[in-house]
Write a structure and sequence with these properties.
Blueprint lengths: L2 E5 L9 E6 L8 H9 L2 H11 L7 E5 L7 E6 L10 H18 L4 E4 L11 H16 L6 E6 L1
Parallel strand pairs: 1-6, 2-4, 2-5, 5-6
Antiparallel strand pairs: 3-4
Protein name: Macro domain-containing protein
InterPro entries: Macro_dom, Macro_dom-like
Length: 153
């Protein structure tokens, strides 16, 4: 059950997949999303994203990595924080689980996550971190062949 928190640049992670904290339309955004698009071949990535959009909150979509060290980019949509009483934690858990399941379907041995929804979506960082850790650790109980990195900045 290898799970590690690391500091660094998610776009430079040498993993089979990197997870993008995406918006539902899978458009280039700011924060982690903007960094991933900037590091990849942005026009090709955007073209594939447009074909696969929309992606509802809590779900995930896989694209090629287009020049990143990874093989795949897994785009998952987290919740916008609205105070905590609107099912945000359930959607956040689903976003992590959907991305992990997508990585498993692609036979990824390693995957790097950002702290989903903790930037412009306003999810409180400590709560987002707790939810990420719990969801990833729970998933890995049955998967001893996947390394997961939570890349913090």
């Amino acid at each position: 059950m290898p799970f590690k928190k690391v500091k660094g640049d998610i776009t430079k992670m040498k993993t089979d997949a990197v997870v993008n904290a995406a918006n539902s339309q899978l458009l280039r955004g700011g924060g982690v999303c903007g960094a991933i698009f900037a590091a990849a071949d942005s026009p090709k990535l955007q073209e594939e994203c447009l074909r696969k959009a929309p992606c509802p909150p809590g779900q995930a979509v896989v694209t090629d990595a287009y020049g990143l060290e990874a093989k795949y980019i897994i785009h998952t949509v987290g919740p916008v924080w609205k105070g905590g009483g609107h099912g945000e934690e359930k959607v956040l858990r689903s976003a992590y689980r959907s991305a992990l399941e997508a990585a498993a379907e692609k036979n990824c041995g390693s995957v790097a996550f950002p702290l989903i929804s903790s930037g412009i979506y306003g999810y409180p960082r400590e709560e987002a971190l707790r939810t990420a850790e719990e969801t990833i650790e729970d998933f890995l109980k049955d998967k001893d062949d996947m390394e997961v990195y939570l890349v913090l900045f």
